[in-house]
Amino acid sequence: MENILFDFISKYITLTEDEKNVLVSLNLFRSAKKGTILLKEGQHSKESYFVLKGCIRSYYLIDGEEKTTAFYTEMDALTPHFVINKTPSEYFISCVEDSILTVSNSDMEAEVNSKFPKFELMCRKLSEELLAQQRIDFDEFKTSSPEQRYLNLLQSRPDLIQRVPQHQLASYLGIKPQSLSRLRARILEKKS
Amino acid sequence: MENILFDFISKYITLTEDEKNVLVSLNLFRSAKKGTILLKEGQHSKESYFVLKGCIRSYYLIDGEEKTTAFYTEMDALTPHFVINKTPSEYFISCVEDSILTVSNSDMEAEVNSKFPKFELMCRKLSEELLAQQRIDFDEFKTSSPEQRYLNLLQSRPDLIQRVPQHQLASYLGIKPQSLSRLRARILEKKS
DNA sequence: CTCATTTCTTAACTTAAGTGAACGTACCTA
DNA sequence: TAGGTACGTTCACTTAAGTTAAGAAATGAG
């Protein structure tokens, strides 16, 4: 299990055996059942997650309705995003499937950063990369229709469509479940 | 003019006079007329911009139509986002108004980072902050209708609505100019 | 100042998403 | 096994955005 984490880290920096051991000793690993809520609206957690296996999602609860904004699957990193305003979280994080994660908080990160300065470098590279990807995703969302967004998702993350309930997918695409059903029917009709 | 830049930097790290002088000696400052295109689709520039005065925007050209994805005004930093795929830019950057900018490329950044390691820290903090803000903006976009997005923009960046042509604003909101006109008329009607 | 171009608004019509309701299926659980 | 709940699909209807076109207003160049 650790190997997935080390494979991920090795994309950014090279670790010695000693450094790997320090990481393992931190007891980062946690498994969580489908449906487990990792973060509730209003909590002020600074936990970061890295998905080793499974799928987690972030969502807002607006007028009693869940609005899913992101899915994180194997090798995805989720850092909470209320760094700026420092107000409590306005969103939830929960497990779509039984999952195995690493969980770290800012204290642990500070500790590791001070012991191994190259972690600082990894953090910078990672957040730059996440920022770039986030911008690309946002641009793509803004410049396409719900139908195009669905077709793009079919290309880029076909597994999600199988793994995730339709109503969560729909709100991720910015539409209602009924519209997703209709849209899928429309696409099938076009093909024939 | 330099002071705006130093004020911005001081939010992240503290600079000595020597360090400030090095920055000034780099000749970062450039002014650009309204309409100037700073980056064209297909170019492979690694320039970063920081807006001291004026307004610049990024946009895609899709089926002959401009799709504006972001506006950057005073104190905003724009880092190009094809860090990952390393393919040429798929979007344009141009000046909405006569603007004064600082322009830096990755070579210059590497030079400054090696001379003053604390710049590395600033870059990390900045990209973490930008990532957080980007996520918040994306979430807000996804969870609201065009009308709500317009009302939110009216709250959060009222200056944009004055400074920016309507058709650019419309595509920034993800709709057509005609729909923005109609939507504004609808809002006015509701108020009365 | 005038002409041409661009930008913005309005209107009529089309298309697609939102809404509310009904129905079938699968999955729990008592 | 029976009843309940959650989920997905379908339908009819409503609402809002896309499209096409026309005209008014602002901008810019000569």
What share of residues are in beta strands of chain A? 15-25%
For this structure, what is the CATH homologous superfamily of the largest domain in chain A? Jelly Rolls
Class of the largest domain in chain A, according to the CATH hierarchy?
Mainly Beta
Largest contact between protein chains?
Answer: A-B, 32 and 32 residues
Kindly summarize this structure in a few lines.
With 192 residues, the first copy, chain A, is α+β, with helices and mostly antiparallel strands. Helices cover 47% and strands 21% of the residues of chain A.
Topology:
The structure is a homodimer of 192-residue chains.
Chain A: H1 2-9, H2 17-25, E1 29-32, E2 37-39, E3 48-53, E4 56-62, E5 65-72, E6 77-78, E7 92-95, E8 99-104, H3 106-115, H4 118-142, H5 146-156, H6 158-163, H7 166-172, H8 177-191
Antiparallel strand pairs in A: 1-8, 2-7, 3-6, 3-8, 4-5, 4-7
Helix pairs in contact in A: 7-8
The first copy, chain A, binds a DNA duplex (30 and 30 nucleotides) through helix 8.
